[in-house]
Every structure is written in structure tokens, then in C-alpha cells.
Amino acid sequence: MSYKALAxxxxxxxxxxxxxxxxxxxCHHIGNRKGKEFSCPSCGWSGDADVNYPPMNWRA
Length: 60
Ligand SMILES: [Zn+2]
Fold this sequence. Notes:
- The chain is α+β, with helices and mostly antiparallel strands.
- The relative contact order is 0.18.
- The protein has a 3-stranded antiparallel β-sheet, with no helix packed on it.
- The protein is built from 1 helix and 3 strands; from the N terminus they run αβββ.
């Protein structure tokens, strides 16, 4: 599927499905998510849990 998307000029973002919105954007550790809020116990980053993630994750 990825090569078809590339051929069509669609950006492909690879993520691990099981941790799609639980992974810290800064250090890639698994953090804590509450709704749309995310906090990372490893580096202290916190903010919108859906930042930098594909649209498919925007709807629960
Ligand atoms: Zn972190």
C-alpha cells in the first residue's frame, strides 16, 4: 500500500498501530494519554496527543 501512496504523491507516515497516539513526539517513549492531552513521564513533554499524527486518529 505504501508504494502506491508514494506513486500517487501522498505522504506516508509510518507509525506503530498499537501505540499510535501514546508515543511521545519528543523522545518516542510511551507516555500517558487522557483524551486529547498527552504527557510524557520520560522527557516531560505535554500537549495535544494528536499532534503530528495522521487524520485517521483524530476520530475516536
Ligand atoms: Zn518524551
